Amino acid sequence: MSDKQKTSPGNGLSRRSLLAAGAAATVVGGSVLKPRASFAQGSGGLERELVFSARGGTIGTVYRTKIIPPFEAKFNCKVTMVVNDSGPAFAKVVAEKANPQTDVLWTVEPTHARGLAEGVFDKLDLKRVTNYERLHSFAQLDGYGASWGIGATVIGYNKKIFDERKLTAPTKWGGIVTPETKTHISWLDLSTHQGITTFLMTNRSLGGDVGNVDPVFKFLKENVANLQFISSPAQVDDLLLQQQAWIGTNLDARMALLKAKGFPLQIVYPSDGLPIQSGILNVIKGAPHPNLANEFVNWVLSDEMQLIVARDIQLGPSNKNVKIPPEVAENLIYGEERVSRLLNFDYAQVARELPKWLDRWNREIT
């Protein structure tokens, strides 16, 4: 989810919450700077405050209104939710490596891989994160964080237009571009997670892999005059709504939310693979409040919160024991069949290759 949702710097922070932290705080461009010496502890060695670096938008609102309040009530603590985009939030954690100010960072696969390379994440304390053992194995991340919601990049198309024009619906990644659709496609560039996965899945359908992206670059150059390259997942929604695009790719949760508004969107879970795109929680190495940080991760992975993740965020539960009603499960990565089709790229390799891809993209595509 490198989703560039609009965020509200400082969203979720109130004067009351800052005062409750027991220390003066300064908000700077979506970041909170505050003294580290705030280790007040409650029972069980738990601290009384937590700094959570998260995303905004619809998903952030669910955290702020439905996930965090009952956690604060149960642990008699205050969670300061700092809203920022993925890149700046990660850069802040790296910049503060010698003196961490954040306890828990919300990442996605590419930033999780970068964090491991930078050595800024701590292993989970499994004595506190007892729900860890209930996760799908791919969500456990070797103990360095945990996936809290499972999504994937999928294909969506305007079913009304496809039916009226009797167009062949795509079932695989190689079926997005056809003579009939090639002038009505929204194509995310490499600045987003969805754009990277679309790029890699198309490359894979053409015989390439992460080490060889020549096939997809050849394909894009041949079709560049026809494709609408965009940089924001929200633009996919806009172009579909305006019928400038008949087909596009995006996070399945975004597609489901658009469909829920009554748009005639058909979501396709391609038979040749679903590139995983999960939300991840990482505890920062040297975090000011490590015990409460681990309890927070455990809280989000609980059955109760995972149901909220499924119902309100439209992401599949990473806790494999959670039972989702059929009407909710319809548009989720949930159940053995869809989970078995998930693919995960080597994002450490992707991180190494990405600068070269971006340079080539700028020279050959844009």
Please specify the SSE layout and strand pairing.
Layout (H helix, E strand, L loop, with lengths): L14 H6 L5 E3 L2 E3 L15 E6 L2 H19 L2 E6 L2 H10 L8 E4 L1 H10 L27 E5 L2 E6 H6 L20 E4 L4 H13 L8 H10 L4 E3 L2 H9 L5 E5 H9 L4 E4 L5 E2 L3 E5 L6 H11 L2 H11 L2 E2 L8 H4 L6 H5 L1 E2 L3 H18 L2
Parallel strand pairs: 3-4, 3-5, 8-9, 8-10, 12-15
Antiparallel strand pairs: 1-2, 5-13, 6-13, 6-14, 7-10, 7-11
Task: Explain what the structure shows.
By secondary structure, the protein is an alpha/beta fold. 39% of the residues lie in helices and 16% in strands. The protein has helices at residues 15-20, 57-75, 86-95, 109-118, 159-164, 193-205, 214-223, 233-241, 252-260, 290-300, 303-313, 326-329, 336-340, 347-364, and strands spanning 26-28, 31-33, 49-54, 78-83, 104-107, 146-150, 153-158, 185-188, 228-230, 247-251, 265-268, 274-275, 279-283, 316-317, 342-343. The strands form 4 sheets. Strands 4-3-5-13-6-14 form a 6-stranded mixed β-sheet. It has a 5-stranded mixed β-sheet with strand order 9-8-10-7-11. A two-stranded antiparallel sheet has the order 1-2. Strand 1 and strand 2 (31-33) form a beta hairpin. The two termini are 24 Å apart. The model is unreliable at 1-39 (pLDDT under 50).
